[in-house]
Write a structure and sequence with these properties.
Blueprint: E1 4-7, E2 9-11, H1 20-25, E3 36-40, E4 49-50, H2 60-67, E5 82-89, E6 95-97, H3 101-107, E7 115-122, E8 127-132, H4 138-147, E9 154-158, E10 164-167, E11 173-175, E12 179-186, E13 192-195, H5 211-217, E14 233-235, E15 238-244, E16 247-251, E17 257-264, E18 266-270, E19 273-277, E20 282-285, E21 290-295, E22 298-304
Antiparallel strand pairs: 1-4, 1-20, 2-3, 3-5, 5-12, 6-13, 7-10, 7-12, 8-9, 8-11, 14-15, 15-22, 16-21, 17-20, 17-22, 18-19, 18-21
């Protein structure tokens, strides 16, 4: 079975950049700003599509409904388990938090959101927020939101290319200006915004905050160290491995695989077909695709359901 190249759904959020996703990652879109490319998505807010196969133009959810290919590890999930994005932050994103599955399924009708970031590019001096600096009470959290001083209690981290951050649901976080990031996350679009620098949206109004929900779901303890062994990150919904240069892999019956090329040029051979790969190329390998090979001086993120 061949690997299927995907084309992304794109988003024009106000903090997005104007060139990087197009010029550095080959994203084709007329949106400006171009903030996010959902390179592998079955979410109704932006499904990706098959690009260069007999199914060209078909959405990934439609392909899976017709052909299958999720794998046995996905049988326990009600919906497609994960989503992969390329993000270009020309301006700071809002400080936000995502709920757990339990809270989100009850209040939002979809999964919560654990995610991870792989930093693909970082401007000099770029940083992000990752959890709280020290444990704080819910009363202190609410007071800082009200006073507009929330950044004072957050853990600010200087960032460089190649850094990885695993962000469990409930962790306060924000991507800073000047960063390009590959985000691997649960299949969810639920975000509770708690600080937004008093910005206004395209309608001239301040974007809404979600204070009560954030108070209900935020983990106000510092993020604990995590060890994923040889993986960059893992949870029940996704696991991520990084490969530098040529490698061989196997896509078994347990799970589909997604291969996202983040830098360099390569050639992917799978199911008797060979396809070119460059930064931003994302391929979907249905479960049971078998052996595959990536050749060339490229870096690849391999994502699957563990």
């Amino acid at each position: 079975m061949p690997a299927y190249r995907l084309s992304p759904a794109c988003k024009d959020y106000l903090w997005g950049g104007h060139r990087r996703l197009r010029e550095d990652f080959g994203v084709e879109s007329s949106l400006d700003p171009l903030a996010e490319a959902w390179v592998l998505s079955c979410h109704p807010d932006g499904p990706s599509r098959l690009a260069d196969s007999p199914f060209a133009g078909m959405t990934l959810p439609a392909y899976l409904e017709r052909e299958g290919g999720l794998g046995t590890h996905c049988r326990s999930f009600q919906d497609f388990p994960l989503l992969i994005k390329l993000i270009d932050a020309e301006r700071d994103l809002s400080i936000q938090v995502h709920p757990s599955d339990e809270y989100a399924l009850t209040h939002e009708g979809q999964y919560g959101k654990t995610e991870m970031w792989v930093v693909l590019d970082a401007a000099p001096g770029a940083s992000l927020y990752y959890g709280v600096e020290r444990e704080v009470s819910r009363e202190d959290f609410a007071r800082h939101i009200q006073a507009g001083t929330l950044p004072e209690i957050l853990h600010k981290v200087p960032v460089r290319r190649g850094d990885v951050f695993f962000i469990p649901a409930g962790t306060l976080h924000a991507i800073g200006a000047g960063l390009a990031i590959a985000e691997i996350q649960q299949n969810s679009n639920v975000t509770y915004r708690v600080f937004d620098y008093d910005r206004v949206g395209p309608d001239g109004k301040k974007r809404p905050l979600h204070v009560e929900k954030a108070l209900a779901v935020a983990d106000l303890s510092p993020v604990k160290p995590m060890d994923f062994d040889t993986r960059l990150g893992a949870c029940p919904y996704f696991a991520v491995e990084r490969h530098d240069g040529p490698f061989r892999g196997r896509c078994g019956e347990e799970s589909f695989q997604a291969l996202l090329v983040t830098e360099g040029q390569g050639m992917l051979t799978c199911g008797g077909e060979t396809k070119t790969a460059q930064p931003g190329s994302c391929f979907f390998l249905p479960a049971g695709s078998g052996d595959y090979q990536m050749e060339g001086a490229c870096q690849t993120l391999a994502v699957y359901v563990p």
